[in-house]
Amino acid sequence: MRFTLGLALAAAAICATSQAGELSPVEQQIVAAVKAHDGEAIALLERAARINSGTLNLKGVRDVGALFRQQFDELGFKTTWVDMPPEMGRAGHLVATRTGTQGKRILLLGHMDTVFEPDSTAPLWQLDGDGVRGQGVSDMKAGDVAIIAALRALKQVGALDNTTISVMFTGDEEEAGNPKAVSRGPMVELAKRSDIALSFEGMVGDRNGQPRATVARRATAFFELEVKGKQGHSSGVFGPGAGYGAVYEAARILDAFRQQVPEQGLTFNPGVILGGTEVAFDDANSKGTAAGKTNVIANTVTVKGDLRYLDYAQRDRAQAKMREIVAHSLPGASATINFRDSYPPMAVTPGNLNVLAAYSQASVDAGLGEVGAVPAEARGAGDIQFIAPYIDSLDGLGASGSGAHSPSERLELASVQRAAIRTAILIYRLTR
């Protein structure tokens, strides 16, 4: 049985029933410990942010990993670095584990890479009022630091003893290495040995400022459209001999997609288009070249795009309609389209909603307010989608910010402490 998007929004109703409770004496100590070490958490975040760790900057990712690995070593976790095959061009992942027999087995997810490669001109760390601007400060080095701050507070009060907690910080979340069976295989194995997964992408708020977590995410896929036409003198375009050429055919197809394929929760975006008489595209670097002349009918168009959907039934409907449109070519042209799945959907489940309800209750009890649910179509892809089919999952538990993936990326510094408090209380309750 598939739970609809409407049920995701029903999580807000679940949370709305929360009544403010009291923190236990131990939980009060946990909150105090988070607050007492807030300065250390921000200092750690600054150290991490000042290291460029674009996905393709393998040394930078590993340097951030070494910094965080030291923190987990100090917390008594067993740490390992999981290397990826050299041909994948990815730095690898940091894994930290501890085992016990008490309560739920928890898996915490973060990532160390950012979209900012070494040639980026975006600042690394620039204070801005009550926040900071920097590369990956909100997406998601602050989430990583919130995990560490929560675990540090739990250790300080003795609440880590006899618990089973695994942490995985990936080095390629922004551009996952292929094949994904390899790059995400270790994560799936950890999930199969866990009961609940919590991921720390940035937390978002609604228009009224209520924090919202993620119980569902849309799947992502790619489409590749290849269009061919008859090259010839431009004076013959539209004629019976030359036909319409590749560019007009590509325009027809894309506009038909826009008009005929849309449905709620589905998006498809042609991100790159190249057309002319000579076209070349470099998949590895997502760059291409095109050449042609205004008096020559283009014979080739290449389109690269993405497709995002709520579930596999929606994917199949969209792909069938897109193939139908492609097949009805203009005279003198032809086209083919291919699809490639990337991230699986994270479906709304009763288990995910239960975890959200528990998280919201922890937030209410700590005086931080209720936490609602983000609609699936409001979030992009995330690592948690690879493991959500196996265990109850919740995402978007990190710090709050804005402008992710842009030179103006900004973090609200106080939100790191809030994220750590909510997380520490939830973990404490789940592991009792």
UniProtKB/TrEMBL annotation:
The keyword Glycoprotein does not apply. The keyword Signal applies. Keywords: Hydrolase, Metal-binding, Signal, Zinc. It holds the Pfam family Peptidase_M20. Its cofactor is Zn(2+). InterPro entries: ArgE/DapE_CS, Bact_exopeptidase_dim_dom, Peptidase_M20, Peptidase_M20_dimer, Peptidase_M20A. SUPFAM superfamilies: Bacterial exopeptidase dimerisation domain (SSF55031), Zn-dependent exopeptidases (SSF53187). Residues 1-20 form the signal peptide. Residues 216-331 form the Peptidase M20 dimerisation domain. This is M20/M25/M40 family metallo-hydrolase. It comes from Massilia terrae.
